[in-house]
Write a structure and sequence with these properties.
Elements lengths: L10 H8 L3 H8 L8 H14 L5 H8 L4 E6 L5 H16 L3 E6 L4 H12 L5 E4 L6 H7 L6 E4 L10 E4 L1 H13 L5 E7 L5 H13 L5 E7 L6 H11 L6 E5 L2 H13 L8 E6 L4 H5 L4 E4 L2 H17 L8 E4 L1 E5 L6 E4 L4
Parallel strand pairs: 1-2, 1-3, 3-4, 4-5, 5-11, 6-7, 6-8, 8-9, 9-10
Antiparallel strand pairs: 10-12, 12-13
Organism: Limosilactobacillus ingluviei
InterPro entries: HTH_LacI (IPR000843), Lambda_DNA-bd_dom_sf (IPR010982), Peripla_BP/Lac1_sug-bd_dom (IPR001761), Peripla_BP_I (IPR028082)
Pfam family, one: Peripla_BP_1
């Protein structure tokens, strides 16, 4: 008998001792022994008795798809975008009787890995994931449960799961072409580490490709989980030349909220010498900078679409669904109220 404080016996321990798969143990525990040989059933029962394994509700729910709970993992709950995709998904899932459980990686890859491994041991029926990692194989290594998964807001190469994303490259490119036509001199991009997320890489490439000869591109990058607002501001102060027509392009709304107010107070960003833009989905930017032109990704709609896709897979995990669904972004000129321009993903 395991001693007090020893590691809890798991279904994997039972399967290993019995010489069968965890799926076979799960079927045995749920009374589905029809396709199982008598010897296999006896081996499983003997392993359960020897290990003093007590089947839990969680183990049974994992097999029966009975928990009616969906795990929802976001990259950073401080971002309004993450909150909105959660709200959109929750609305759809709750209408179908599911509870959505929000989990935050707080921009930490290690935290993301820990959450994915933890989800394996819980009775969730499916997973909606806004990943930090760009590596689909890394996700597959951690999320070993055989249940439906839908990826949101990240376009992963070699993904085995459906993905719902924004047309990041085309949105940035089309918006930037509008700004280029206004006779700009330079672009200052503000972002957390660009290479660490497919969204940022695509947006940044779209900006670069839209520029014409003689227009300069300056970039400020920092570690999202460990940075000084004042240090980034000082870099911006040194980089922005008020004598030039400058586009301040933020790859995330939070950076506009952090850095735009002091730059405007100091006269480095004005309606005469600047175009302020970035990916933003709240009304906060409008109150700070009425002349900004922001790119909306429609995260509520993205969350709804991801949840609808997950429900289809929950009904039948073998059902074919689109591998990549794109939500077109729109460019909003705040000085013109509700005037939108769709930044279509087609070329």
């Amino acid at each position: 008998m395991p001693s007090k404080g020893s590691k809890k016996t798991t279904i994997r321990d039972v399967a290993r001792l019995a010489g069968v798969s965890t799926a076979s143990v799960s079927r045995y525990l749920n009374g589905k022994k029809g396709a199982m040989t008598e010897q296999k059933a006896q081996n499983i029962q003997a392993a359960i008795q020897k290990l003093n394994y007590v089947p839990s509700f969680t183990a049974r729910a994992m097999n029966n798809n009975a928990s009616k709970m969906v795990a929802f993992v976001v990259s950073n709950i401080e971002d309004y975008f993450s909150v909105e995709i959660f709200r959109g998904a929750s609305q759809v899932l709750e209408n179908s009787g599911y509870v959505t459980v929000l989990m935050d990686t707080n921009s930490s890859l290690q935290r993301e890995q820990e959450l994915l491994e933890s989800i394996n041991q819980r009775s969730f029926d499916g997973l909606l994931l806004q990943p930090l990692t760009n590596d689909a194989q890394e996700i597959a290594k951690r999320a070993v449960r055989q249940f439906p998964i839908v990826i949101m807001d990240r376009e992963l190469e070699l993904s085995a799961w459906p993905q719902v994303v924004t047309n990041n490259y085309r949105a940035s490119y089309n918006a930037m072409r509008d700004f280029v036509a206004q006779g700009i001199d330079e672009v200052v991009v503000v972002s957390s580490q660009i290479q660490s997320a497919s969204t940022r890489r695509q947006r940044y490439q779209g900006i670069k490709d839209a520029l014409q000869s003689g227009q300069s591109l300056k970039t400020i990058e920092f570690n999202e989980s460990d940075f000084s607002v004042e240090e980034v501001l000082n870099r911006l102060r040194r980089m922005i030349d008020p004598r030039k027509k400058t586009v301040l392009f933020s790859l995330k709304e939070r950076w506009l909220l952090n850095f735009l107010p002091p730059l405007m107070r100091e006269g480095l960003i004005t309606s005469e010498n600047s175009i302020v833009t970035g990916f933003a989905d709240t009304n906060l930017i409008e109150s700070i900078c009425p002349f900004a032109r922001v790119i909306s990704q429609h995260p509520f709609t993205m969350g709804q679409r991801a949840a609808e896709t997950l429900l289809m897979k929950l009904k039948d995990n073998d059902q074919a669904v689109p591998g990549l669904q794109i939500i077109d972004a729109t460019l909003k000129d705040l000085s013109e109220g509700v005037a939108f321009k769709t930044l279509n993903h087609s070329f």
